[in-house]
Amino acid sequence: MTFLIGLAKRGKRIIKRLLKRYTKVYLSQVRRIERVKTAERVVAMTFDDGPCAEPPSPDAGGAASLTGRILDKLAEFGARGTFNVVGDTSENYPDEKGADGTPYWSGTRFDHYPSFGADALGGAKNQPELIRRMLAEGHEISSHGYRHIIFGESKSVYGKRESLGAFDAAVADLQRLHGLMEREYGCTLTLHRPPHYVDKLADGTTSYDVCEKLGYQYVGASFDGCDWLPLAAGYEAEVRHTRSGLAALLERDPDALCGQIIFSKDGFNMAHRSPVADGLALQLETLSRYGYRVVTVTELLRFSPLADLDASDALFGTVCELLNAGRTVAFADNTIRLAQTLTRGELLLMFAEDAAARRVALIKSGKRAAHDVPATHPYSGAVGWAAGRGLLPRDGRARPGKPADYALLDRILAARGNPPTGKSGRLSRAAALTVLSSVTA
To answer: Model-level pTM greater than 0.85?
Structure first.
């Protein structure tokens, strides 16, 4: 069963990579951060589903808790991690435990962390000592949902699981954890990783809409720490597996992990074993041997906020200022794509106010933003903003995929009370960013 699950997930990743080449990516206030562009040997390590007060399994060292073991190893190597924590899964009943080695090992209808029936040993609500230790030792805490309920259906793997299903329910779940972290720990969350990476909600909204509502960025990962899937050969093979792929990659190219984010678990695999307990030290030893520093995701973003732009690029400073000002200038996959043609929809989104909130409102109302832009279109909020200011053509069509030009930019500037450029012709992405920077400042 675990072999089939692993094969299915690997196949899914391959299909996603292939689809990625042909799937249009849209500008987004929320960016899925998987890696950043940097020549520095620096990497971020993330740990999902904790904190976990259960001891490692098996545990030859007698550690009091799995999270404590992870924190000990990070401290030993001078490393800092980002922990994607849950609030509490004890409300996820009635439920039944599924078979070990399947996705339902910790619950058929819901997840239970650290394991079925042991919810009190996990979560930020129940384990204040572990949360406080994370913060005291310089680690970062990110949201992984209060009850770790998937946002929408995931028929390929988690078809039996109940989901939140709608925007308001997902926002409420994340706000609950956000409030807990602020109230009990004085920690304001800024990052989020959706449970099981399920992004689409049944009502037409997505995890990106939810993140925007809370002011979060989306934490992805570009490298699998390989501690989540059981191996038939058992625990020792699972521990070796956590290092083998990483070591092979760095042997081929010592700079291959520069700026990447590694996915790991602060919990058990589907066989209720925790190879991270012993595998983490092997990973950290390997990274150290190649001169890598292990930092939090937020620290990684200080090298560059984007996957395709760094300080060597002429517009780096301008783009960073715009991102810091909250302008939507990057794509959802955390790229800026300076050489790509700028579209009308992208230009509108760069200048629009409250576009994400407008999009959610349109989806709830069922109204179209324009004759050719349905409510669920990624740029519907920006098009609605433009329609309200009389910026659309008389035929009521926004044509968001057509190339942008200076005529549209000048109409936008006039509506904002800014002087027009007086130029004509097609508008480049770099020119639009420069103008936006000048009026934003």
So the answer is: yes
